[in-house]
Amino acid sequence: MLLVLTPLIPSEGSAELGTGSLLIMAGVALAAIAWNARLLLNQPSFWWQWADAALLALVAAYVVSGLVMAEQGNPRATINAVWQWIGFGAVYFLARQIFRRAVDRRALAVVLLAVATLLSAVSFHEYFYSMPRLRARYAVEPERVLQEAGVQAIAGTAERRLFEDRLHSSPPIATFALTNSLAGFLAPWLIVALGIGWQVRRAGGIHPVSWRSPVMLGLLIAGGAISFCLLLTTSRSALLAVLCGGAAVTVLRRIGRGLDRRLLLGTGLIVTALVGAAWAAGAFDWLTVSEAPKSLLYRFEYWQASWSLIAEHPWFGCGPGNFQQYYAFYKLPQASETIADPHNFLVEVWSNAGTPALLALVAFLVLVARSVWISGSFPASHGRQEEAWRAGIEESSSRGWIWLGAILGVLGAFPVGAVVGFPPPASLFWAGIPSAVLIVALLDGWVCGSFPVRVSSETVPDAAN
Questions:
Q1: What digits encode the pLDDT tens for the residues 178-233?
Q2: Could you tell me where the DSSP H helices lie in 99-177?
Q3: How far apart are CA 230 and CA 353, in angstroms?
Q4: How far from 281 is each of 127, 275, 401, CA to CA, in Å?
Q5: Whether the Cβ atoms of residue 277 and residue 314 lie closer than 8 Å to each other
Q6: Taking the mean position of all CA atoms in its chain, how far away is CA 396?
Q7: How far apart are CA 274 and CA 251, in angstroms?
Q8: Residue 292 confidence (pLDDT)
């Protein structure tokens, strides 16, 4: 429920406004309940790997940085940011302990892929209907629209211009504060959909699964919706990440097998069609491409200033939640704005929490990549394949609890959003939820064990075996 609810509630003001505090408290409380229940019921020991230790070290580095730097910045923002990272760690370790079985992990992946599709549907409604309608209303009755938005700004002021710029900005934002944040959430799940598709396509051994099968149809719908929404966001970084991630998945899956020219041709045609549709919709034009060098130049300026900050605060950084306040002292003279983050997750961690936090993050990423590479490169023995496959079918009944949690997460977005002051749009209910339900229904065959346990080189035992 928490994993579904979080992307449906705007929480990008967690440090300054504390908008995510309710979800953070719920995550920490749930982790504490699970920990105590496991101890009281004498359940099996916890799963623990070196990657988990690295993530724990990352959270600890943020806590130490917050304790050291709180008095040298904005104490309230630092406290909120530290608790946000504690919440991240609590939910991560909780998920690691709860989603142990293959069927649970598949169900969770499908749920979050459905959430990405849901947000894409909400974005389509926003881009093609609600925002054009709002802009037309603002042209007729601007003061009324401002009043409904809770903005008090007279004509000609900077606040008024900022509101008008956002109103006339075309990219969708769905339930996020920025369109790049929406793109950042969607991009990984598009790569996950591609990975599942590769696995399912070859699940039948020498007889590939038909593109008309429910699972492949669900992946095509989800992947197409997410891809088109990413193009509407015009986020160049997210598009580049998808290209790199998609290429990596394709190469890893095809090592030793050669490339299927028909598949490459089909992929090229689909990408061309999506880009053409985005171009026709007015979201993707030559300016989007031509402005890329300028955008990269701005980022180099951000990173150069951030490096000066890091050089003066190498061990503890500026403290969680304090970056914008500190950045003002290091901003280059030619820089146009005082940014809230350096637009790079490695630089952000390094500047906020110091070198120990960066080392812990890099160690976590390397250890996870190593684990995925080992598990995905070496097929299990035939006996273990069959055992895992049958276990997936026998345990499929547990997915009902995950479906229930997902439903509660979507429905809970409305009361929780009202409490924090950011209720989700009504289109989430009548456009987003049907889209998510469709994806879950189509991919249920993959969840319940009709296909291999994980996205790797394993295959389902055929009938002869």
A1: 888 999 999 999 999 988 887 776 655 444 556 668 888 999 899 999 999 998 99
A2: 102-125, 131-140, 142-149, 158-168
A3: 31
A4: 9, 10, 40
A5: no
A6: 26
A7: 23
A8: 66
